[in-house]
Amino acid sequence: MNRSSDVISLPSARPDLAQSYSASDAEISEAIRRAQENLLRQQKTDGHWCGELMVDSTLCSDYVLFMHWCGEVDGQLQRRCVQHILKRQLLDGGWNIYHGGPSEINASVKAYFALKLARCSADAPFMHEARSNIMRLGGIPQMNTFSKLYLALLGQFPWKYLPTIPAEMVLLPSWAPFNIYKMSSWSRAMLVPLAIINHFKPTRVLPGEKQLHELYPLGTEQSDLRLSRSERFWTWRNFFLRVEDVLKFLHPLGFRPLRRRALEKAERWMVERIGEGSDGLAAVYPAMLNCLIALRALGYSKTNPVYAKAERDFAELFVGDSEDFRIQPCLSPIWDTAINIISLAESGVSPEHPALQRAADWLINKEVRIRGDWAVNNSHPEASGWAFEYNNIYYPDTDDTAMVLMALRLVRPNDPRSLNELFRRALGWQLSFQCRNGGWAAFDKNVTTPWLEDMPFADHNAILDPTCSDLTARTLELFGYIGFDAKAQCVRDALQYLIDTQDDDGSWYGRWGVNYIYGTWQALRGLRAIGQDMTQDWILRGRDWLESCQNSDGGWGETCETYDNPATKGIGESTASQTAWAVMAICACGDLDRPSIQRGLRFLLGSQKPDGSWDEEQITGTGFPRVFYLKYDMYRQNFPLLALATYVNYRSSLGHRPSFYRCDG
Fold first, then answer.
1. Which pTM does this prediction carry?
2. Total structural domains in the chain?
């Protein structure tokens, strides 16, 4: 690597800045160099990157439950899962779903159950503490529907009190008020196998010493455990619960004329999506685990090629080292590779550098060229886009697609005509996903029917795929970099969407990153890229909000608690990734000598490790708000580099590195 050409020179900072926090040219250049080398060391031989995704204890807990349900317990894996679970037990006896968060009922019951199945004595002090905590949280009745279903598989919750997931839903046409394509892609992939499971109700009876009677508050285990109705007579929730009562009444009568046909279609749907081109159903943990259970319920043996592939794909999520065993919820190579290309290229690595060339070629070869599930709600004729994982052809998404295109624009193409064709195709695909309100969602178009959130099996808070400010602004950022017509109607609609979704204090909600810092960063970055006047009052309110929540150490931090309690927005221990986002956002508004920027840079420079990375224990990625969060290990490594590069480029009036693709329409 030619270091002399990899970092652009910095202009001198104003001499009137306080030296206590002003960052020098040499310090920033050295930090950039170390961060670049750190990323380049981790690149795979074929050109891509894939950092680990870290989550809470529920994945290991669920896997222990699964092994006991199917009666095939791998002793070594179970021991490692137990170590993983015990290592994450909180002082109050429970388990949480994000770093620093409070005990959470679903995670705590699952952990306790897994430990009990693994022969941990209920009389052990850590089990007593866990049990006491669970009871303080309300016990098993307070768990969500999907968690209760896993208990039902092992006989610890009555099936009759679980919401019915009728397999017949797969037969409903696309024009029906409800069908599986009215749900988010991840809910669809979880619920289709769950519908099969709900039909067969394949229950394993446990010996008495492994049951969970002690986790029901006194008098509740034999009570009516159905979901409660709203107090008002007419609500969508009450409507669905009355429909649920009818389905429960019809079930013992055996009146299910379409059930066999529905089960066959659900099976075909599921098997098709775990075949070639997919690393498991939707390539994401919950759907993949549900799929394994559903296949076993359908009678697939372990040696059946379909089941064997599903099992192999699932095992690819396992991560083991000398200190810990972990299960990832999915893999993130497309996302990580795109962000790393951008960070390296923006920080001065040559567009002809072999590392960037290999990475770009790898991404180009991962373009999805089939019409997957998205095509039901989107009539766009030409398939394109990128998924998050290695192979997930049915589920490309707009977030990865925008990030990949922003990365590819920075690498000198070997074949410019081929790049132009790829951009034409992918931009058309991205544009086709703009929703009625002007925003972009992740996987589908207009999957935003609000009354579906009241369906009895929708209490995982993720039944819809809503438009969001971060994805909309990222799309605008892409458009700005490639010279897309800023006066086009689609851009005007997207800008209005950002105006409409800004909070009163100036911040924006972050759907796919934690949280208002993430959303505000992406909104301001997108607005600058598309050519907005960054001195407008409504835009500066976003900058001012960020400055108002800067920590005394110069950094920024925010926790996942903000999804439950927005009053805590902008509050949290400083992290490298969130500080990077805030610095980039404030830079986007101009005036690079603002004390907030200089203090943020000082935080990043002061916290960088000798190997070029940063430490970050906190979770700053979002899966399903209030339910599931993701710690991207790459975020602590690539976003600080991008923040330093952004500051340098804005100071040199470059703005961003030149694009090798310019939109001609």
1. 0.94
2. 2
